[in-house]
Structures are given as C-alpha cells and as structure tokens.
Design brief:
- With about 290 residues, the chain is α/β, with parallel strands linked by helices.
- Helix 3 links the parallel strand 3 and strand 4.
- The protein is globular and about 60 Å long.
- It starts with a strand and ends with a helix.
Length: about 290
Amino acid sequence: MSEIKIAGIMRAGAYSPNHIGNDAAIFNATAEELRKRGFTVNVYSEEQFRKGMMGEDVIVNMCREAASIGLLQKLEDEGRLVINSGYGIENCTRERMTRLLLGHDIPYPESLIVNTNEAVIPELKRAGFSSCWIKRGDFHAMHKEDVSYCRHPEEAQEVLQEYFYRGIKRAVINKHLTGDLIKFYGIAGSPFFFWFYPFDAGHSKYGYEEVNGKSRGIKFSEEHLREICDRASAVTDVKIYGGDAIVDADGSIRIIDWNDWPSFAPCRKQAAPHIAKCIINAIKAHDADK
C-alpha cells in the first residue's frame, strides 16, 4: 500500500472564487496526512495535468476545468482510480445536479431548467415562483454573476437575458426558500460531518448568505441531514462533498447547493485525516477489484 504513488491535482484559481487559499489548504493538509501514512503524493496544477506531466495510477483531485474533467473521465475509463470521480465532478454542474437530486427524490427546491433566450415570466408565475435564484446550468460557478437572486419574475427575465448575452445557454431557476441557511461538509463512508450557520459565522462566498439573514436556530434532525447527504453523495458519485441547505420553520431540510471537494475552511484540521482515510479505503477497494 505505502509504495503506491498518488498524483494530487490542485484546483485552478479561477474555480476557487474567494477561496483560493482555503482550497489549497485543505488539499495540502490531505496530502500531508497521506504522506504520514507512507504514501508518495506528487502535486500538480491542472495545467500540468492536462499536459500529461503525471503518470501515477491514483489521482486525487480538485479539478474544475472542463478539459481536466474530460481527461479524468478518460483515465477512469482506462482503469485508474480517481477521487473525486470526473463523472462525479461533472454531476455537480447545476443542470445535472438538479436533474439527479430531483430524479432521486432528494429534498431540493422546486426548479425550472430553461434556455436563457426564452420567455419565462408566464411559466414562473404559473409555477408560483415570486423570488427565485438563477444559476448557470452548464458549468460550475466562476463569478458572482453565475448565481443571481431575483426578487420577482420580471427581474428573473432580465437576468436570463444577461446570461444569454454572456454566452450561457442554459440555466436552472430554483424557487427561493425561506428558513435557516446552513452549510455542511462530509466525507462518504466516514463518521466526519460538520455543519454551521454561514451568515452568523461571517463565512461567505458571494455575500448571498445575507438574503436569508441571521439564523433563528430552527430545530432539525442532524441525522436526517446526514442521511440526505449520504444519498446525494451516492447519487452524484462524489465522496468528498459540501453544500448548503435550508431548514424550514417546521424543521424540514432541502439541499440548495452541492459541491465536489469544498474548502472545509472552518473544520480543515478535523476533516483532513478523514479525507485521507477515505482515499486509502478507496485504494484498497480498487486494488481488491483488480
């Protein structure tokens, strides 16, 4: 086991909006945990990876570039172990994620998937969407403008037109949910799970936490939240995950965002050993299947 060499692929800075340092920190902490256990971990940038500058059979990555994801999928198909899976990373793009979560009855907001050049005001009104969120459907968010809060259908139409002019052809429209916003981090097959109120903790990606505001501390079942996340992890094929959820006034929980390998910023020290163990367990399982 300890003779296995691992390629660690860092996330390109463009896909770590406001979190370049945090993403690098959790990745480096995980690499160190693997090295403590005797593994050799060689770290590469996404650019180096795409140029073919690695030959390791195990690939641990935070990739987000489309070309990188395609290459990860090709290497998986050839038999290499890839964590997170390139297919799983692709499943975290908005349209695919929305279809997967709704299609498997995982609690998620009512949503519309639309072309950005179509008229949506009548459809939004029929569906009972007043305020809503528009998110680019084709890929991961890179800019604040890739996720937009809209106060009414007319504003949503204007935002969609802006997306169209930016060259974004597809978008997901989520109905706005009221309640406590929580952020969570987890690792498949691990006892590790962490959640907190991002607005109260001053943790922000684009400042949208302010839309829901300060938490009310609505009681909910953490066990149920973990069960929902376990199902989403399996459905999306993402072992190292994070996301956001809304807790409604009655304690019900719905996921509103799901991400492959987030920053684990408030719990990095606790999470890194569990991420390393998850990777080691995946290596063992992969070797056993050969």
